[in-house]
Amino acid sequence: DVPVTAKNFINVAGLQFDVDFDATKATFVSVEDPNNALTGFGSQNYFSPTPGKLKVLWDEPGLINTTIDDDELLFNLRFRVADKPSDPFPVSIDQLSVFDNHRKRY
């Protein structure tokens, strides 16, 4: 599992980002252990449009601002490793967009 943790997650009502990884080394399986503060977060909040890419989208159903402490787990990304589990493979997050309950983007 690859943990995704909070950093400056203050007054957030929604977010979206891409996760990029080497599809020759790993296959995305699922998102596990979502933080309870991510109200309604489930399988409808992520999809893998192509191998090596995962898109994550979440907004608080009532557009209520949410704060999660730094380094607290948002969720784990579960991958199936292709070859040697000990071989590292890079996972990066990009295209990050965060907004508050007034749809102001940060």
Label the structural class. Answer: mainly beta
What's the pLDDT, averaged over the residues? 91
DSSP strand content: over 45%
What's the story with the biggest beta sheet? 4 strands, antiparallel
SSE succession:
EEEEEEEEE
Number of helices: 0
End-to-end separation: 28 Å
Shape: elongated
Helix content: under 10%
Write the layout of secondary structure elements.
Elements: E1 2-5, E2 9-12, E3 14-21, E4 26-32, E5 46-47, E6 53-59, E7 66-68, E8 73-81, E9 91-99
Antiparallel strand pairs: 1-8, 2-7, 3-6, 3-9, 4-8, 5-6
Describe the structure.
With 106 residues, this protein is an all-beta fold. Helix content is 0%, strand content 50%. It has no helices and 9 strands. The strands form 3 sheets. A 4-stranded antiparallel sheet has the order 5-6-3-9, with no helix packed on it. The chain starts with a strand and ends in a 7-residue tail after the last strand. The mean pLDDT is 91.
